[in-house]
From TrEMBL:
Sample GO molecular function, one term: ATP binding
Protein's UniProt keywords contain Transport: yes
Domain ABC transporter: 9-236
Species name: Splendidivirga corallicola
Keywords of this entry: ATP-binding, Nodulation, Nucleotide-binding, Transport
Protein family (similarity comment): Belongs to the ABC transporter superfamily.
Name listed for the protein in its UniProt record: ABC transporter ATP-binding protein
Length: 313
Protein backbone atom coordinates (compact mmCIF):
# COMPACT_ATOMS: atom_id res chain seq x y z
CA UNK A 1 0.00 0.00 0.00
CA UNK A 2 2.82 2.37 0.97
CA UNK A 3 4.31 2.00 -2.48
CA UNK A 4 1.56 4.18 -3.92
CA UNK A 5 1.90 6.88 -1.28
CA UNK A 6 4.12 9.90 -1.72
CA UNK A 7 7.51 9.67 -0.04
CA UNK A 8 7.62 12.66 2.29
CA UNK A 9 11.03 12.18 3.91
CA UNK A 10 13.94 10.38 2.26
CA UNK A 11 17.16 9.82 4.20
CA UNK A 12 19.94 8.29 2.14
CA UNK A 13 23.22 7.00 3.52
CA UNK A 14 23.31 9.69 6.18
CA UNK A 15 26.26 9.84 8.57
CA UNK A 16 27.15 12.20 11.37
CA UNK A 17 30.42 11.71 13.20
CA UNK A 18 31.67 13.73 16.17
CA UNK A 19 35.40 12.92 16.01
CA UNK A 20 35.53 9.20 16.76
CA UNK A 21 31.85 9.02 17.86
CA UNK A 22 29.69 7.67 15.05
CA UNK A 23 26.42 9.22 16.22
CA UNK A 24 24.63 8.33 12.98
CA UNK A 25 26.42 5.79 10.87
CA UNK A 26 24.90 5.22 7.47
CA UNK A 27 21.11 5.47 7.73
CA UNK A 28 18.57 4.97 4.95
CA UNK A 29 14.95 5.70 5.70
CA UNK A 30 11.83 6.44 3.66
CA UNK A 31 8.72 7.90 5.26
CA UNK A 32 5.43 8.09 3.40
CA UNK A 33 2.58 10.58 3.58
CA UNK A 34 0.47 10.13 6.69
CA UNK A 35 2.84 7.66 8.29
CA UNK A 36 3.67 7.80 11.99
CA UNK A 37 7.19 6.55 12.55
CA UNK A 38 8.93 5.86 15.86
CA UNK A 39 12.67 5.95 16.31
CA UNK A 40 13.11 3.63 19.25
CA UNK A 41 16.45 3.04 20.90
CA UNK A 42 18.49 3.38 24.09
CA UNK A 43 20.48 6.43 25.21
CA UNK A 44 23.11 7.39 22.68
CA UNK A 45 21.55 5.38 19.83
CA UNK A 46 21.63 8.47 17.56
CA UNK A 47 17.91 9.32 17.57
CA UNK A 48 18.28 13.04 18.37
CA UNK A 49 21.17 13.47 15.95
CA UNK A 50 19.10 11.89 13.18
CA UNK A 51 15.93 13.94 13.79
CA UNK A 52 17.94 17.13 14.19
CA UNK A 53 19.49 16.52 10.77
CA UNK A 54 15.99 16.05 9.35
CA UNK A 55 14.99 19.29 11.13
CA UNK A 56 17.92 21.13 9.53
CA UNK A 57 19.46 21.88 12.94
CA UNK A 58 22.51 19.70 12.29
CA UNK A 59 24.17 18.96 8.96
CA UNK A 60 25.15 15.44 7.93
CA UNK A 61 28.83 14.71 7.23
CA UNK A 62 27.72 12.42 4.47
CA UNK A 63 24.53 11.47 2.62
CA UNK A 64 21.37 13.25 1.64
CA UNK A 65 18.07 14.21 3.25
CA UNK A 66 15.11 15.40 1.23
CA UNK A 67 11.71 16.44 2.49
CA UNK A 68 8.98 16.53 -0.15
CA UNK A 69 11.80 16.65 -2.68
CA UNK A 70 13.32 19.75 -1.01
CA UNK A 71 16.45 20.25 1.08
CA UNK A 72 17.59 22.58 3.85
CA UNK A 73 20.29 24.20 1.78
CA UNK A 74 17.99 25.57 -0.90
CA UNK A 75 14.46 25.55 0.54
CA UNK A 76 14.74 26.62 4.16
CA UNK A 77 11.68 28.89 4.24
CA UNK A 78 9.41 26.37 2.55
CA UNK A 79 10.51 23.63 4.90
CA UNK A 80 9.97 25.81 7.98
CA UNK A 81 6.41 26.37 6.82
CA UNK A 82 5.50 22.68 6.61
CA UNK A 83 7.41 21.31 9.62
CA UNK A 84 6.48 21.52 13.30
CA UNK A 85 9.05 20.34 15.79
CA UNK A 86 9.78 19.94 19.46
CA UNK A 87 13.26 19.36 20.82
CA UNK A 88 14.31 16.84 23.47
CA UNK A 89 14.49 19.68 26.00
CA UNK A 90 12.53 22.85 25.44
CA UNK A 91 13.59 26.02 27.22
CA UNK A 92 10.79 28.50 27.72
CA UNK A 93 10.91 31.98 29.19
CA UNK A 94 9.94 31.27 32.81
CA UNK A 95 7.98 34.43 33.49
CA UNK A 96 5.81 34.43 30.42
CA UNK A 97 2.38 32.90 30.71
CA UNK A 98 1.27 29.98 28.55
CA UNK A 99 -0.80 32.41 26.46
CA UNK A 100 2.05 34.90 26.10
CA UNK A 101 4.41 32.11 25.07
CA UNK A 102 2.03 30.86 22.38
CA UNK A 103 1.40 34.44 21.20
CA UNK A 104 5.13 34.98 20.90
CA UNK A 105 5.56 31.97 18.63
CA UNK A 106 2.35 32.75 16.74
CA UNK A 107 3.85 36.20 16.06
CA UNK A 108 6.85 34.57 14.35
CA UNK A 109 4.49 32.85 11.95
CA UNK A 110 2.16 35.84 11.58
CA UNK A 111 -0.79 33.83 12.96
CA UNK A 112 -4.03 35.11 14.43
CA UNK A 113 -5.25 35.03 18.05
CA UNK A 114 -7.87 32.54 16.90
CA UNK A 115 -5.14 30.07 16.07
CA UNK A 116 -3.67 30.40 19.55
CA UNK A 117 -6.97 29.65 21.22
CA UNK A 118 -7.50 26.66 18.91
CA UNK A 119 -4.11 25.31 20.03
CA UNK A 120 -4.82 25.99 23.72
CA UNK A 121 -7.92 23.89 23.32
CA UNK A 122 -6.20 21.12 21.33
CA UNK A 123 -3.41 20.63 23.88
CA UNK A 124 -5.81 21.13 26.76
CA UNK A 125 -4.11 24.12 28.37
CA UNK A 126 -7.03 26.56 28.28
CA UNK A 127 -7.25 26.48 32.10
CA UNK A 128 -3.55 27.24 32.44
CA UNK A 129 -3.31 30.03 29.92
CA UNK A 130 -2.51 32.68 32.55
CA UNK A 131 -0.01 30.51 34.44
CA UNK A 132 3.68 31.33 34.21
CA UNK A 133 5.51 28.66 32.28
CA UNK A 134 7.87 28.11 35.24
CA UNK A 135 4.88 26.91 37.28
CA UNK A 136 3.66 24.26 34.82
CA UNK A 137 3.98 20.56 35.61
CA UNK A 138 6.23 18.41 33.42
CA UNK A 139 3.26 17.10 31.45
CA UNK A 140 1.86 20.59 30.92
CA UNK A 141 5.25 21.82 29.66
CA UNK A 142 5.38 18.94 27.18
CA UNK A 143 1.89 19.80 25.96
CA UNK A 144 2.92 23.44 25.57
CA UNK A 145 5.95 22.36 23.52
CA UNK A 146 3.62 20.24 21.40
CA UNK A 147 1.23 23.18 21.04
CA UNK A 148 4.06 25.35 19.72
CA UNK A 149 5.01 22.61 17.27
CA UNK A 150 1.42 22.58 16.02
CA UNK A 151 0.90 26.33 15.63
CA UNK A 152 1.66 26.43 11.91
CA UNK A 153 -0.59 23.44 11.06
CA UNK A 154 2.44 21.40 10.06
CA UNK A 155 2.15 18.63 7.51
CA UNK A 156 5.20 17.05 9.13
CA UNK A 157 5.73 16.74 12.85
CA UNK A 158 9.14 15.91 14.30
CA UNK A 159 9.05 15.25 18.05
CA UNK A 160 12.05 14.30 20.14
CA UNK A 161 10.89 12.31 23.19
CA UNK A 162 7.56 14.10 23.60
CA UNK A 163 6.55 11.99 26.61
CA UNK A 164 9.75 11.22 28.46
CA UNK A 165 9.34 11.61 32.19
CA UNK A 166 5.55 11.88 32.08
CA UNK A 167 3.27 9.81 34.26
CA UNK A 168 0.98 7.35 32.46
CA UNK A 169 -2.01 9.72 32.45
CA UNK A 170 -0.04 12.64 31.04
CA UNK A 171 1.54 10.35 28.45
CA UNK A 172 -1.89 9.14 27.42
CA UNK A 173 -3.05 12.75 26.94
CA UNK A 174 -0.19 13.43 24.53
CA UNK A 175 -0.98 10.18 22.69
CA UNK A 176 -4.61 11.24 22.32
CA UNK A 177 -3.60 14.57 20.79
CA UNK A 178 -1.26 12.84 18.35
CA UNK A 179 -3.89 10.27 17.36
CA UNK A 180 -6.39 13.05 16.74
CA UNK A 181 -3.94 14.76 14.37
CA UNK A 182 -3.36 11.52 12.54
CA UNK A 183 -7.03 10.86 12.06
CA UNK A 184 -8.16 14.39 11.30
CA UNK A 185 -5.25 15.91 9.40
CA UNK A 186 -3.24 13.02 8.00
CA UNK A 187 -0.09 14.50 9.55
CA UNK A 188 3.20 12.70 8.90
CA UNK A 189 5.23 12.26 12.08
CA UNK A 190 8.58 11.04 13.34
CA UNK A 191 8.94 10.73 17.08
CA UNK A 192 11.81 9.44 19.14
CA UNK A 193 11.10 7.41 22.22
CA UNK A 194 12.49 4.94 24.74
CA UNK A 195 9.07 3.42 25.28
CA UNK A 196 8.14 0.43 23.17
CA UNK A 197 4.50 0.84 24.24
CA UNK A 198 4.50 4.34 22.78
CA UNK A 199 6.05 3.19 19.51
CA UNK A 200 3.58 0.29 19.27
CA UNK A 201 0.52 2.34 20.12
CA UNK A 202 1.14 5.38 17.95
CA UNK A 203 3.24 4.32 15.03
CA UNK A 204 2.65 1.96 12.14
CA UNK A 205 6.35 1.94 11.42
CA UNK A 206 8.94 1.30 14.11
CA UNK A 207 12.62 1.89 13.48
CA UNK A 208 14.91 0.36 16.06
CA UNK A 209 18.21 2.21 16.38
CA UNK A 210 21.42 1.22 18.12
CA UNK A 211 24.90 2.75 17.88
CA UNK A 212 24.01 5.04 14.99
CA UNK A 213 22.52 2.31 12.85
CA UNK A 214 19.07 0.90 12.12
CA UNK A 215 18.86 -2.59 13.61
CA UNK A 216 15.42 -3.37 12.22
CA UNK A 217 12.36 -1.58 10.88
CA UNK A 218 8.78 -2.47 10.09
CA UNK A 219 5.37 -2.72 11.67
CA UNK A 220 5.21 -4.19 15.15
CA UNK A 221 3.89 -7.47 13.76
CA UNK A 222 6.52 -7.63 11.04
CA UNK A 223 9.33 -6.97 13.48
CA UNK A 224 8.15 -9.54 15.99
CA UNK A 225 7.31 -12.27 13.52
CA UNK A 226 10.58 -11.82 11.66
CA UNK A 227 12.98 -11.44 14.54
CA UNK A 228 11.61 -13.11 17.66
CA UNK A 229 9.90 -16.47 17.90
CA UNK A 230 7.78 -18.02 20.60
CA UNK A 231 6.16 -16.99 23.85
CA UNK A 232 7.78 -16.47 27.24
CA UNK A 233 7.08 -17.97 30.64
CA UNK A 234 8.64 -15.79 33.34
CA UNK A 235 8.60 -17.42 36.75
CA UNK A 236 10.03 -17.34 40.25
CA UNK A 237 10.08 -20.23 42.74
CA UNK A 238 10.26 -20.40 46.52
CA UNK A 239 13.11 -22.95 46.51
CA UNK A 240 15.82 -23.90 44.11
CA UNK A 241 15.51 -26.53 41.44
CA UNK A 242 18.14 -27.79 39.04
CA UNK A 243 17.85 -26.32 35.56
CA UNK A 244 18.06 -29.91 34.29
CA UNK A 245 14.76 -30.70 36.00
CA UNK A 246 12.84 -28.20 33.91
CA UNK A 247 11.00 -30.00 31.12
CA UNK A 248 12.80 -30.01 27.80
CA UNK A 249 10.80 -30.73 24.71
CA UNK A 250 11.53 -30.06 21.08
CA UNK A 251 9.29 -27.00 21.41
CA UNK A 252 11.58 -25.23 23.87
CA UNK A 253 13.54 -22.39 22.29
CA UNK A 254 15.50 -21.25 25.31
CA UNK A 255 15.68 -21.83 29.06
CA UNK A 256 17.28 -19.30 31.38
CA UNK A 257 17.25 -20.14 35.06
CA UNK A 258 19.12 -18.36 37.82
CA UNK A 259 19.55 -20.91 40.62
CA UNK A 260 20.65 -18.23 43.11
CA UNK A 261 17.79 -15.82 42.54
CA UNK A 262 15.27 -18.63 41.98
CA UNK A 263 13.81 -17.05 38.87
CA UNK A 264 13.85 -17.88 35.21
CA UNK A 265 12.46 -17.47 31.75
CA UNK A 266 11.52 -20.20 29.33
CA UNK A 267 10.82 -19.37 25.69
CA UNK A 268 8.63 -21.95 24.01
CA UNK A 269 7.04 -22.42 20.62
CA UNK A 270 3.80 -23.79 21.99
CA UNK A 271 2.80 -22.36 25.34
CA UNK A 272 -0.39 -24.38 25.70
CA UNK A 273 1.38 -27.72 25.42
CA UNK A 274 4.42 -26.71 27.48
CA UNK A 275 2.82 -24.97 30.45
CA UNK A 276 1.15 -28.09 31.97
CA UNK A 277 4.49 -29.95 31.85
CA UNK A 278 6.17 -27.05 33.62
CA UNK A 279 3.45 -26.93 36.29
CA UNK A 280 3.79 -30.71 36.80
CA UNK A 281 7.47 -30.28 37.58
CA UNK A 282 6.66 -27.54 40.08
CA UNK A 283 4.09 -29.79 41.73
CA UNK A 284 6.20 -32.95 41.74
CA UNK A 285 9.05 -31.09 43.43
CA UNK A 286 6.73 -29.58 46.05
CA UNK A 287 7.67 -26.08 44.97
CA UNK A 288 5.60 -22.93 45.07
CA UNK A 289 5.52 -20.32 42.35
CA UNK A 290 6.11 -16.87 43.81
CA UNK A 291 5.37 -15.36 40.42
CA UNK A 292 4.29 -16.58 37.03
CA UNK A 293 3.70 -14.60 33.87
CA UNK A 294 3.09 -15.89 30.37
CA UNK A 295 3.59 -13.28 27.73
CA UNK A 296 4.03 -12.61 24.03
CA UNK A 297 7.45 -11.51 22.81
CA UNK A 298 8.09 -7.78 22.78
CA UNK A 299 10.36 -5.30 21.06
CA UNK A 300 12.57 -5.50 24.15
CA UNK A 301 13.06 -9.24 23.51
CA UNK A 302 13.96 -8.38 19.93
CA UNK A 303 16.47 -5.79 21.12
CA UNK A 304 18.01 -8.25 23.59
CA UNK A 305 18.31 -10.92 20.92
CA UNK A 306 20.14 -8.50 18.66
CA UNK A 307 22.33 -6.62 21.13
CA UNK A 308 22.37 -8.62 24.37
CA UNK A 309 21.02 -5.52 26.15
CA UNK A 310 17.61 -4.29 27.25
CA UNK A 311 16.19 -1.27 25.38
CA UNK A 312 16.28 0.84 28.53
CA UNK A 313 19.41 -0.40 30.29
N1 LIG B 1 27.49 17.63 19.69
C1 LIG B 1 28.02 16.45 19.99
N2 LIG B 1 29.35 16.29 20.20
C2 LIG B 1 29.89 15.08 20.47
N3 LIG B 1 29.17 13.94 20.57
C3 LIG B 1 27.84 14.03 20.38
C4 LIG B 1 27.20 15.27 20.07
N4 LIG B 1 25.87 15.04 19.93
C5 LIG B 1 25.71 13.73 20.13
N5 LIG B 1 26.88 13.11 20.40
C6 LIG B 1 27.07 11.68 20.65
O1 LIG B 1 26.43 10.97 19.63
C7 LIG B 1 25.78 9.80 20.13
C8 LIG B 1 24.30 9.85 19.78
O2 LIG B 1 23.68 10.88 20.53
P1 LIG B 1 22.14 11.22 20.38
O3 LIG B 1 21.89 12.43 21.23
O4 LIG B 1 21.81 11.33 18.95
O5 LIG B 1 21.48 9.93 20.99
P2 LIG B 1 19.96 9.64 21.39
O6 LIG B 1 19.58 8.35 20.75
O7 LIG B 1 19.13 10.82 21.11
O8 LIG B 1 20.08 9.40 22.95
P3 LIG B 1 19.03 9.76 24.15
O9 LIG B 1 18.06 8.65 24.16
O10 LIG B 1 19.90 9.74 25.36
O11 LIG B 1 18.44 11.09 23.87
C9 LIG B 1 26.06 9.79 21.63
O12 LIG B 1 27.16 8.95 21.86
C10 LIG B 1 26.40 11.23 21.93
O13 LIG B 1 27.29 11.32 23.03
MG1 LIG C 1 17.99 12.06 22.25
Amino acid sequence: MNNQKEIIIAVEQVKKYFKEVKAVDGIDLKIHAGEYVALLGPNGAGKTTLVEMIEGIQQPNHGKISIKGKNWKHHQDELHRIIGLSLQETRFIDKLSVLETLNLFAGFYGLSKGKVSEILDLVNLEEKKKTWVVNLSGGQRQRLALGIALLNDPEILLLDEPTTGLDPTARREVWDILMKLKNERNTTMILTTHYMEEASYLCEKIVIMHSGKILAQGTLDELLSKHVKGEAIDFALDRSISKDDLPKTEKVIKIDYDEDNLNGEIIVEDLVSYLPKFLDVVKQNNLNLTSLECRKMTLDDLFISMTGRHLND
